[in-house]
Amino acid sequence: TVGAVGIDSDGGLAAATSTGGRQGKLAGRSSDTCMIGSGTYADDNIGAVSTTGHGETIAKFCLAHSIIKAMERGQSAEEATQNCVELMTKRLNNTAGAITLSNRGEVGVAFSTNRMSWAYQKGDHLYFGIDKNE
Amino acid sequence: MEPVILVHGGAGAISDDAKAQELLAGVKGAAKTGYKVLTSGGGVVDAVEAAVRSMEDEEIFNAGLGSVLNLEGEVEMDASIMVGSDLSAGAVTVVKDIKNPISLARLVMDKTDHVLLAAEGAKKFAQLHKVVPLQPGALVTDASKKALAKWREKQVEASAELG
Question: What is the ipTM of this complex?
């Protein structure tokens, strides 16, 4: 799975996610990635999210929308992403990752898997990582 | 507001360090691609679409070219896109032989009042909008075939363990 979230100079937000699915899936299996609110969400009033990981779990937990609602309750992009990924993993015992932008341009990156590749550009700077705490 | 483009290349075990480096190179390139669109007059939707397209086109990512295979050895893909200003959204699911599913999802958003199109209907819709499907199997790679074979072996071993 791959994804992107963006914010423009007027604070306009968008999110996009695309996937080939899971190894060994049945023909016809649909994943969280095509489900608005699980794989992808964007609302200029709050933020934008793209998720990845165990698709059936993300779908049942509505992970992208959970992160949006956590930010709506006042959590930062980083806190909301970390807390919701952890909560989902604890509740359903499968792992995932997510990237988030708040409507103030704050960045959130979290994953309960072993690794997740990510990168963002802000001005002339490019930030990136794949291991925990990068 | 300072524009930002943030991308991910997928979460998982990723135990192979060489693959990890390739993934990092790919996400850095995607972030730059999206940021360039955003800062040269494109909209934020164009920017996230461009960033995802660049990763769909790279075999190392599980999307577009190089997607994992289903049990029948085929590539079936999902994608979705959403705009924060008016909550408009578009998505496709179980699509085959489409080079960039994220652009097809965007067409669903821009050209229909649906949110999600599936399988054969999505493919017909693509052709209606001049998105020419690839030859069947064009998105299957040697790496994805090997990965499925390895997965099958593990299943056999696991069931053998159960005795």
Answer: 0.98
